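All the exercises in this workshop are built on plain-text protein records. An example says more than a description, so a record of this kind follows:
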Amino acid sequence: MQLKPFARAAMRYPLTRVLLATSISLAVILPTWARPAMLTANLATSQINVRLNPSTQSGIAYSGYAGDRVDILKQTQASDGYTWYYVTFDHFGAKGWVRGDLVSPIASAPSPSVKSPAVLKQPSPAIAVIPETRPVRPSSGEFTSKQINYFLEIALGAEFSQSGSASKIRKWQGDVRIQYLGSPTTEDLKTLNSVISEVNELTNGGIHLQLVEQPCCTGGVRNPNITIHFAPESQFSQLEPNYQPGNYGYFWTRWDANNRIYNANVLITTTKVTQKERSHLIREELTQSLGLMQDSFKYAESVFYQPWTDVTQYSEIDRSLIRMLYDPKISSGMTQAQVMNVLNTRQAQQR
């Protein structure tokens, strides 16, 4: 049986500037204006450099992602032959230059699904957005189109995934046995127990999370399949060989040929963050290791919010995603079309 690993690194540094100075000869800058645009790239997960000056030789001030919404403030024709745009991310107040082939101006900004300044990223083009119509009503509760759209983004999308590997539902079955190693605080363990209790309630028997002790009992029935390491970030690469440096929280999951997750490794830093931030990381990384593997710029109150955050409770939309993933009608290996077929069938039954 071929086993397929997946890694999703939670970028958990606040947005920082790289103060690099570069001297460059620039063309005359055109008059300024502001118009909406979107960062574009061949891959939906591509990281796009936002530079101090309009040149690939200039220092990198920030990084954005394909799909990020920006406003163009001005443009210039640089000596490399490209048009460069000076853009701003309204939510961060971040500004910088992006090469023209990575920016797609739009005539008028489409109405965002949420009226919030936190909305910087639209759903991936590979994810269909359903209209805001009547709610879909699965047996576990009422799902609105807003919740379903977010589910498609978080459950079927993925950062740093293998090519083509993030287009199916992946989830656990049965018991999820969690052990922790390292140096957790009393508050860390309180958060961990709270997350376990809440997930068990939300999944309504779809899976069962429990803490286990090591060494394991006779027969191996209590062998852990999720290990949470509480350690300094400097030790992460020793604890998980697939760790990508620069993350205060990280997880790596493994699934089988049937897209059933069978193992996960979770890393939580014990340095450089506050207790509240660490409580957030515990909640987010453990939840994402259950199959909700993507981050989003959409909802600041969500634990899946991409920018640096210290949210320590599930929002209502987070709770709906957990219920949806572990609804018995949503199976491992389902594609987006199959998920929508299940939800549309239920919607029709409610009419």
About this structure: The mean pLDDT is 76. Residues 186-203 form the longest helix (18 residues). The chain has two domains: 4-9+123-350, 12-105. Residues 12-105 form a domain with the SH3 type barrels. fold (CATH 2.30.30.40).
